[in-house]
Structures are given as structure tokens and as C-alpha cells.
């Protein structure tokens, strides 16, 4: 039976026709009038931005101490840059391998929270396509690289994160024969896997015993529901921080 932590069930603009106006009379030329802009709209926008920034800053923006304790306990270092949504967690496992966790804050915070998804899915069983579409909207990508420094190779895994029950779904497991090149080229560009590269078999098609073994392997290395909770909680704090910075920068421009 598969681990409770992991769930392997996954599964133009309209064209505007241009119209020609034809006439046999010579129309008098029209001198284009320059539109004069006033500062009224800019002042109004600035006022609204300032009000939104004031309200936003009045709300607490603190990263719960328990999450810092989680980082310390698990040995993860947090790597992030102001103005970007890409985040990395990295640590050295007990077997000496380097574990990298990559996620996108914008993608995590865009997931709708639908606690009654399962009930809604049951109601629409006759429309399997709609059910899968609803599930896809509740998943975000979390990417894992387990790097063997000695051999310079690694396992790259794409996981789906469910915010409804803080669990991961394994998408695929991919072998990287040159981990350093993968990190410096693919990861740095945010591309990860080349679209022409074989990603590996669909995880849900693997023998159940192999699926469970992979899940236990990940859990032993800290890829578990605690990590899922951290990723979601940190993403909310990071997104709010970036939003406040954005409000301040646009307000300063005006």
C-alpha cells in the first residue's frame, strides 16, 4: 500500500477586421490635437497605492519561529533573492549527498484552496476531464535534486504539491549524469529538464512496491509533509513581502 504522504493518483485574441472608408470627395485635413495629461490621475493612483501600502504594512509580516526551528532541525539553508520568486532549500544529508529543493513562490500562492474538492469531484464524475482540470489547478511543482558530489551525478525528481492535505505527488524521477552542469546550466535558467530529454517512466505506472520504495527514500531525506507545510507557509510570507516592495516601488515612481 502506498504511503499516506504520497498520492500517485494524478493523473486569441479575437481578430478585428480593419475597415476602409472610401469617399469621392476630398476631405479637409484634420490637425491632430495633442492630448494634455494632468497630474490628477497620477495623484489619484498614488493616493490609492499609498493607502494600500499603509494597510499592507499594518498587518503583521513575521515568519513564525517554528519554521526557523524547522530549518535548523532539518539542516536546510534558505537561498532567495529580493525581487525574485524562485527559492531554494539546500542541505547535506546523512549519507553525504546534497539535497536541493526548488520551488516558485508565485506558483505556490496561486493555488486555490478548495477544501471540498473531493466532494465536488464526486458530483462531476461523468466529466473526468473537468475533474482532472480541477485537480491540476490545485497542484504546484516542487523540484528535488539529490546530488552525489563524489560521482557528480544525481537524481532529479519533479513533485506536485497539494495544499489541501500537505502531500506530495511524484511526477517522475530522472537521472542526471552531470549534476554540476545540470545546476549551472538548467537550474540557473529555470528550465530544469530539456523537453527532448527522456524524463523517465510515469511514476504511477511503476510497480506499487517500487513506488513505495521511492516514497520512503524521499521521506527519509526530509521530503515529507513538514517540508510541504514549510514551502506553503514561507511562500505566503515571501509573496506578501514582494507585494509590499512592489507597492513601494510603483508609489515612488509616481
Automatic annotation (TrEMBL):
GO terms for cellular component: mitochondrial matrix. This is Mitochondrial acidic protein mam33. Coiled coil: none annotated. One of its GO terms (biological process) is cytosolic ribosome assembly. It holds the Pfam family MAM33. It comes from the Eukaryota.
Amino acid at each position: 500500500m502506498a504511503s499516506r504522504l504520497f498520492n500517485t493518483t494524478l493523473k486569441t485574441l479575437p481578430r478585428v477586421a480593419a475597415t476602409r472608408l472610401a469617399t469621392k470627395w476630398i476631405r479637409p485635413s484634420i490637425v491632430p490635437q495633442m492630448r494634455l495629461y494632468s497630474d490628477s490621475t497620477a495623484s489619484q493612483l498614488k493616493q490609492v497605492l499609498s493607502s494600500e501600502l499603509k494597510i499592507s504594512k499594518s498587518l503583521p509580516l513575521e515568519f513564525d519561529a517554528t519554521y526557523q526551528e524547522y530549518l535548523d532541525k532539518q539542516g536546510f539553508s534558505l537561498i532567495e533573492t529580493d525581487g525574485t520568486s524562485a527559492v531554494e532549500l539546500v542541505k547535506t544529508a546523512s549519507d553525504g549527498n546534497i539535497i536541493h529543493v526548488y520551488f516558485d513562490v508565485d506558483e505556490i500562492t496561486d493555488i486555490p484552496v478548495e477544501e471540498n474538492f473531493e466532494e465536488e469531484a464526486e458530483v462531476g464524475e461523468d466529466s473526468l476531464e473537468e475533474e482532472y482540470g480541477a485537480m491540476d489547478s490545485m497542484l504546484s511543482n516542487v523540484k528535488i535534486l539529490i546530488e552525489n558530489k563524489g560521482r557528480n551525478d544525481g537524481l532529479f525528481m519533479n513533485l506536485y504539491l497539494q495544499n489541501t492535505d500537505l502531500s506530495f505527488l511524484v511526477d517522475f524521477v530522472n537521472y542526471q549524469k552531470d549534476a554540476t552542469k545540470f545546476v549551472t546550466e538548467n537550474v540557473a535558467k529555470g528550465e530544469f529538464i530539456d523537453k527532448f530529454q527522456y524524463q523517465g517512466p510515469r511514476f504511477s505506472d511503476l510497480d506499487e512496491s517500487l513506488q513505495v520504495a521511492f516514497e520512503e527514500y524521499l521521506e527519509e531525506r526530509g521530503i515529507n509533509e513538514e517540508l510541504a507545510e514549510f514551502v506553503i507557509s514561507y511562500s505566503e510570507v515571501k509573496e506578501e513581502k514582494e507585494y509590499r516592495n512592489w507597492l513601494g516601488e510603483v508609489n515612488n515612481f509616481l
